[in-house]
From TrEMBL:
Keyword terms, alphabetized: DNA damage, DNA repair, Endonuclease, Hydrolase, Nuclease
Molecular function per GO: endonuclease activity
DNA mismatch repair protein S5 domain span: 205-323
Lineage, broadest ranks: Bacteria, Pseudomonadati, Pseudomonadota, Gammaproteobacteria, Alteromonadales
Residues of the full protein shown: 8 to 334 of 638
Gene name of the encoded protein: mutL
Name under which the protein is recorded: DNA mismatch repair protein MutL
Protein function: This protein is involved in the repair of mismatches in DNA. It is required for dam-dependent methyl-directed DNA mismatch repair. May act as a 'molecular matchmaker', a protein that promotes the formation of a stable complex between two or more DNA-binding proteins in an ATP-dependent manner without itself being part of a final effector complex.
Domain of life: Bacteria
Family listed: Belongs to the DNA mismatch repair MutL/HexB family.
């Protein structure tokens, strides 16, 4: 089974940032409202993620580290929903097969916390009492210590950290209600406090996308039938300076989608033809039955069943918002 884990790790764990992504998603699934991420040396030395979610019971710690042991399927009635959220039940097993992993957790029902350690190939899981408040702490040390080829493939600490920063940004944009802190080598780098009301969303957008973006973007808010789009669309000044600022979420998941990109490009071309760049943070909500999601962890693809309608809806919504602001 350990070999299978390591093969799966090749799919799931490409670099420290992929570990951070998986662990953050687990914390969110566990209902956390606060998540602290500590990184040492670009994540190759240590990735520690602590949350205040529901925790893992002592007798489920072992299970959490074994492959396809996801407990989440039972809680979700709709299989399509499960697939679209990408539940696969192999992230922790995969990560622990290529690192030294410690999982420490306490549930509300327990008086004490317990900790499970697994290390690389042998996967001898040891369970010990520990000190921890309700919630979970996952520590991933020495990533790829037993797969030297992969370890050599890592870039500089700074580059790996930048990838982590980007993963955290993407998730912070999708969950305004959760506080997220990120530190690197002991120094706090990011603190995104929880946003309680819609009117405070600008604060987080500014923290993530910068002042210039928020000051030169317009808000979008439209719906039609069972599709809804909200978010921020950058006007030329915003776009020109931040061409990489393109975030689109479909039902809470970050996506790169040709169809949506095309609609956005078209809106820019029709309204500000001189503009070559686009900057945006957009959230599309659609009936989950109307989309297929590619569940491969490294891909962010969707397929809309009614592609034309979605395309035209996005175009119209952005076009109208731009027209109003240009008047
Ligand atoms: P999946 O998320 O696909 O279920 P993982 O390997 O990522 O699989 O996690 C395995 C299991 O460990 C989860 O199903 C969950 O029960 C438990 N788990 C992992 N991380 C956490 C966490 N931060 N808080 C609570 N439970 C967790
Ligand atoms: Mg997971």
């Amino acid at each position: 089974p350990q070999l299978a884990n390591q093969i799966a790790a090749g799919e799931v764990v490409e670099r420290p940032a992929s570990v951070v992504k998986e662990l953050l998603e687990n914390s969110l699934d566990a209902g956390a409202s606060k998540i602290e991420i500590e990184i040492e040396r670009g994540g190759s030395q240590l990735i520690r993620i602590r949350d205040n979610g529901c925790g893992i019971a002592k007798n489920e710690l072992m299970l959490a580290l074994s492959r396809h042991a996801t407990s989440k399927v039972a809680c979700l009635a709709d299989l399509e929903q499960i697939i679209s959220l990408g539940f696969r039940g192999e992230a922790l097993a995969s990560i622990s097969s290529v690192s030294r992993l410690t999982l420490t957790s306490k549930t509300a029902q327990q008086n004490e916390a317990w900790s499970a350690r697994a290390e690389g190939r042998d996967m001898q899981v040891e369970i010990q009492p520990a000190a921890h408040p309700i919630g979970t702490c996952v520590e991933v040390a020495d990533l790829f210590f037993n797969t030297p080829a992969r370890r050599r493939f890592l870039r500089t600490d700074k580059t790996e950290y930048n990838h982590i920063d980007e993963v955290v940004r993407r998730i912070a944009l999708s969950r305004f209600d959760v506080q997220i802190k990120l530190s690197h080598n002991g120094a706090l780098q990011r603190n995104y406090p929880a946003v309680k009301t819609d009117s405070h969303k600008n604060t987080r957008i500014q923290a993530i996308c910068g002042r210039q973006f928020i000051e030169s973007s317009i808000m979008v808010n439209a719906d039609y039938d069972n599709i809804k789009i909200t978010g921020w669309l950058g006007l030329p000044q915003a776009a020109r300076n931040q061409n990489d600022l393109q975030y689109c979420y479909v039902n809470g998941r970050m996506m790169r989608d040709k169809l949506i990109n095309h609609a956005i490009r078209q809106v820019y071309e029709d309204n500000i033809p001189s503009e070559m760049y686009a900057a945006y943070v957009l959230f599309i909500e659609i009936d989950p039955k109307q989309v297929d999601v590619n569940v491969h962890p490294a891909k962010h693809e969707v397929r809309f069943h009614q592609a034309r309608i979605v395309h035209d809806f996005v175009y119209q919504a952005l076009h109208k918002a731009l027209q109003q602001s240009l008047q």
